[in-house]
Amino acid sequence: NAGVTQTPKFQVLKTGQSMTLQCAQDMNHEYMSWYRQDPGMGLRLIHYSVGAGITDQGEVPNGYNVSRSTTEDFPLRLLSAAPSQTSVYFCASSPPLADTQYFGPGTRLTVL
Amino acid sequence: KNQVEQSPQSLIILEGKNCTLQCNYTVSPFSNLRWYKQDTGRGPVSLTIMTFSENTKSNGRYTATLDADTKQSSLHITASQLSDSASYICVVSAKEYGNKLVFGAGTILRVKS
């Protein structure tokens, strides 16, 4: 199993550009989520999904969209990138009611 | 105020030495408390998870303790190795908010030879 994969690993955007961060998992996990990690702060939940076709907002959803058309994929879209979205983004997955989440390797995004 | 506070922010120790990382939380009631290890440039990986009724859990050279009365947890690393250099993150699952995870900012540990 590849586990949780994320692409790209690094990305530089200009203010106002849009892009999609990809996340995929091959463990048939129903629960998937997106976090951002900023220096000196804990990971913060952006959006999450409890299954295909179901998504919900987390703690910091503004400026981001998600969709979950399949169990495997959970892309995160930045609609109009802003410098405040410069961060490291992590995707995670877990089976329902499981205690442990499995994290991807992260995408480092810089918005100029 | 952050509901999960970790100390110290960073720590440097010599290889072979022991160390203890602290986590204080205000999240209440909680479902469980987890410790994750995050290597530089990687995602967090689970080390231990403890429920309210457990007060210690080990994973090799890592031992986590939990005092639910004082709302404190610690992660003790025995006989440190260079590969222990990483950020260690304390995470509390908030029962009141549907088991939402509240992350601490982490302690950065550097083990020197």
Structural class of chain A: mainly beta
The count of strands of chain A amounts to 11
Which regions of chain B contain 5 or more consecutive residues with pLDDT less than 50?
A: none
Poorly predicted runs of chain A: none
Helix content of chain A: under 10%
Averaged pLDDT of chain A? 94
The proportion of residues in beta strands of chain A is over 45%
Task: Please provide a written account of the structure.
The complex is a heterodimer of chains A (112) and B (113). Chain A contains no helices and 11 strands. Chain A is globular. Chain A is an all-beta fold. Chain B has 113 residues and is mainly beta. Helices cover 0% and strands 59% of the residues of chain B. In chain B, the strands form 2 sheets. In chain B, strands 2, 4, 5, 9, 10 and 11 form a 6-stranded mixed sheet that branches. Chain A binds chain B through residues 4, 40-45, 90, 92, 99-101, 103-106, and chain B through 2, 4, 32, 34, 41-46, 49, 89, 91, 93, 100-106.
Concise description?
The complex is a heterodimer of chains A (112) and B (113). Chain A has 112 residues and is mostly beta strands. Chain A is built from no helices and eleven strands.
Task: Describe the secondary-structure layout.
The complex is a heterodimer of chains A (112) and B (113).
Chain A: E1 4-7, E2 10-13, E3 19-25, E4 31-37, E5 44-51, E6 54-57, E7 64-66, E8 76-78, E9 87-94, E10 102-103, E11 107-111
Parallel strand pairs in A: 2-11
Antiparallel strand pairs in A: 1-3, 3-8, 4-5, 4-9, 5-6, 7-8, 9-10, 9-11
Chain B: E1 4-7, E2 10-14, E3 19-25, E4 30-38, E5 45-51, E6 56-59, E7 62-67, E8 72-77, E9 86-94, E10 100-103, E11 107-112
Parallel strand pairs in B: 2-11
Antiparallel strand pairs in B: 1-3, 3-8, 4-5, 4-9, 6-7, 7-8, 9-10, 9-11
